[in-house]
Amino acid sequence: MKTMPTIDQNLTEAPVATSTTSLASRAENDPISRTGGRPRVVVVGAGFGGLHVAAKLARADVDVLVLDRNNYHGFWPLLYQVATAGLDPASIAYPARAILRKYPNTQFLMAEVSGVDFERKLVLSGDKALPYDYLVLAAGSANNYFGDTALAAHTFGMKDLDEAEQLRNQLLRAFERAVVEPDPVRRAALLTLVIIGGGPTGVELSGAFAELIRHVLRKDYPMLDIAQARVLLVEASDRILASFPEQLQRSARKRLEKMGVEIKLGTAVAAVDGDTVTFKDGTQINSSTVVWAAGVRAAELVDALGLAVGRSARVKITPKLNLPDRPEVFVIGDMAYLEGYKGGQAYPMVAQVAMQMGKQAARNILALIEGRPLGTFHYLDKGQMATIGRRAAVFDAFGIRLSGFFAWIGWLFIHIIYLIGFRNRLVVLTNWAYNYFTYDRAVRLITGAERE
Ligand SMILES: Cc1cc2nc3c(=O)[nH]c(=O)nc-3n(C[C@H](O)[C@H](O)[C@H](O)COP(=O)(O)OP(=O)(O)OC[C@H]3O[C@@H](n4cnc5c(N)ncnc54)[C@H](O)[C@@H]3O)c2cc1C
Questions:
Q1: What is the pTM of this model?
Q2: Could you tell me if 138 and 189 lie in one domain?
Q3: Do 267 and 294 meet the contact criterion of CB atoms below 8 Å apart?
Q4: In a domain, 402, yes or no
Q5: Domain holding 208: CATH number?
Q6: 94 in any annotated domain
Q7: Which amino acid residue places its CA nearest to atom 20 of ligand 1?
Q8: d(CA 118, CA 135)
Q9: Taking CB atoms and a 6 Å cutoff, what residues make up the pocket around ligand 1?
Q10: Is residue 429 part of a domain?
Q11: What does residue 129 show for φ and ψ, rounded to 5 degrees?
Q12: In the prediction, which pLDDT does 30 show?
């Protein structure tokens, strides 16, 4: 019986530091290349972009290897519901191997990529190397603290499952501590949540936290004066949801304020320590839970690549989605900087851009292999939306601008469609129905060790 070589064998056969073999002889020793002899496409990242590359290449005459530092695909648009105790982390993530095993030409390897040797066409993971013929970099984004280490140390981010769980744990721990805190000033700080950044993540978080406190924690903690609990949404500019039309910004703001969220516009943060947020105008708020939702940049991997970058450390690419001097290397999604959106801005860091870039990159890889001209990336803008609590959202798509209940129904519908996995859809729908009718949040658990 012919046995399939494993990817792990391949990793051990190509150590970077000690390798003196040429690329050609190493490729001969590379079990995956040898089996098919087909071009190998390595995709870094099993996110929205990376998965669409693999899906589009599934029937092509190539071998695809998808790498990710996690063994799952994360559905980040619902991450805020993990942080606010509405959903279990497992219901918004799906095993990458389970997604990719249906593509016969595709393998998955859990590996953190630390760099790329573009000359020798090797993807580096620790002290190991993986050869590629075509490379797609789709490692997504990271929190941007603009070099402020105190900000990074004393705020909670919202970029992955770990961070969302840490935030949920933190808020619930703060309420537990408030119960036994005799000092009223300290108690008020424990009950104060500050969210910095009035984009969709900050808006969705603040609405969901306000409801968690009002509907659930109020009943869980009858010994606390819940009127002391505050949710503040702090934004440096003069508006929230800056990318939305003005009428939707206004209705989102009104709705949040009605829910009890205190919105501070035109308020830039100067410093954050473990107990206090200091604003540039000199005012301060005592808070033990501060969320940083005001800065995003390309994945840290970019710093190791030595490539030209644009705003937010995103890698500059051509309209064909590859590097100007390395046509075989494509960069897509949040990692990529390409102007052309709405009259020349960079394409936004949203899932639709990543998915559509993934498909175009796959098409262009096949064009390169077959010697055809490459296609230019054209974006079909499917609009944007954000929820504001349990019955309202803002929705701006295909010329339709909605706010309130029907926008929320649209939001629910679209998120369920894009969520991967039947089980996850079922679990999320059941949870939403349960939360909606009972006003409860089932996942208000404090798990794992406290963040240092
Ligand atoms: C909280 C939150 C809410 C959001 N809400 C929305 C929304 O409502 N609508 C919307 O359109 N967009 C939303 N986005 C943005 C959207 O999720 C991203 O634009 C999209 O995920 C980008 O796709 P990507 O493939 O570039 O990156 P991702 O989907 O983030 O995938 C990147 C993958 O690369 C992996 N990776 C990173 N570094 C490495 C490494 N060094 N080695 C190996 N693997 C690595 C990661 O583990 C990850 O699986 C949201 C993002 C967040 C964080």
A1: 0.92
A2: no
A3: no
A4: no
A5: 3.50.50.100
A6: no
A7: 351
A8: 10
A9: 44-50, 67-70, 74, 76-77, 79-80, 112-113, 138-140, 158-159, 200-201, 299, 301, 333-335, 349-352, 354
A10: no
A11: -140, 145
A12: 53
Which residue out of 204, 350, 359, 387 has the highest number of ligand 1 atoms within 8 Å of its CB and is therefore the one to mutate? 350
Query: Which of 301, 331, 334 for a ligand 1 pocket mutation test, highest count of atoms within 8 Å of Cβ?
Result: 334
List the domain range (segments joined by +) for residue 276: 149-294
Which pLDDT score is estimated for 360? 98
How many contiguous H segments (helices) and E segments (strands) does the chain have?
15, 27
Which atom of ligand 1 is nearest to 48's Cα? 25
* Residue-level pLDDT at 450: 85
Residue 276's DSSP bridge partners are 286
State whether 132 and 158 are in the same domain: no
How far apart CA 9 and CA 384 sit, in angstroms, is 44
Are residues 208 and 253 both part of a single domain? yes
Residue whose pair of structure tokens reads 């309420």 in the numeric block: 175
- According to the model, what pLDDT value does residue 4 have? 35
* Total domains in the fold of the chain: 2
Boundary of a domain, candidates 370, 390, 421: 370
Residues 134 and 159 in one domain: no
Strand partners, 400: 397
Q: Whose CA is nearest to atom 6 of ligand 1?
A: 77
358 CA: nearest ligand 1 atom: 25
The pLDDT value given to residue 104: 96
| CATH number of the domain enclosing 336 | 3.50.50.60
Residue 327 placed within a domain: yes
Q: Name the residue with the closest Cα to ligand 1, atom 31.
A: 47
d(CA 192, CA 152): 19
What residues in the chain have per-residue pLDDT under 50? 1-28, 31-35
**How far does residue 335's CA lie from ligand 1's centre (Å)?**
9
Cα(334) to centroid of ligand 1, in Å?
A: 7
Q: Is 370 a catalytic residue?
A: no
Boundary-marking domain end, from 240, 267, 294: 294
